[in-house]
Amino acid sequence: MTAATTAHDRLVQVRSSTPGPGDGDCVHLGMHVSGSVAGVRDGVRSPLRPGDLVFCDPAGPDPLRFGEDGRMMFLRIPRCYLGVTQRELEQVVGAVVPGDEGLGALVSDFLSVLAAKAEFRRSTIGDRPARTAVHLLSVLVVELLESGVAEEGAEAPGGATEMLSRIRAFIEGRLRDPDLSPESIARAHHISVRYLHKLFQNDGTTVSQWVRRRRLESCRIELGRSHRLTVAAVAHRWGFSSPSHFSRTFRGAYGMSPSAWQALATAAFAPAPADARGR
Questions:
Q1: Is residue 258 within 8 Å of residue 222, measured between CB atoms?
Q2: Which overall architecture, per CATH, does domain 12-154 show?
Q3: For the chain, which has fewer Cβ within 10 Å, the N-terminal or C-terminal residue?
Q4: Is the distance from CB of 229 to CB of 263 less than 8 angstroms?
Q5: Which regions of the chain carry the CATH code 1.10.10.60?
Q6: What is the helix, strand, coil percentage profile of the chain, to 5?
């Protein structure tokens, strides 16, 4: 591209509406400037604060809703420069990126400073500041894809619940695997570890707590059925590598040691002596 460019071709525009579909070869990154603007994703409205960022796809549904005084600054980026697939782009479009924390803060501050410079408003992709901005946006897209923000938004209504059910069933079938971990669970379901943690957090627990609880319940049932099995053997069978750690965890959950529970349970369910049954 050359330095000479029309208003439509400029990288930066401050608008009170989302750029229209005539710009379908580009992706827009909107940064909230002032007034009332909300992002809409999966039917959920998220009010934007100054500096917050939202990716928009002119070829898709408009993810922004403007109030009368709402103003956004839009950075136009040709799709080919972001280095992502259409599917990946669809996952990040509409996701609100806070402009006051993490990489979002860095991108927001950088764009605010550059947009204040008249020469940047007239710049093209071939200019150094614009190339730096595009590089930052590429990194931001990758972080969104890896962080789980994109995965969460890509779920259809009810999708998170269905995903959590599948993950729990997966865990249930592999409780005896000592290598079961958040990493292996996330990898098996093609999601990030961060998104996996978010699924369980929304349900009021953590991945590790869920796995530990299900293992403890399995151990409790097995210990209660037989006095012949050693505590160490049962612990090892259900994925606990350390018998002492298992004993402490079991006592913390049930208020007694696993050996005490085993003795109590087997005595309670043991057949009565013959003379006692005849009375």
A1: no
A2: Sandwich (2.60)
A3: C
A4: no
A5: 159-269
A6: 50, 15, 35
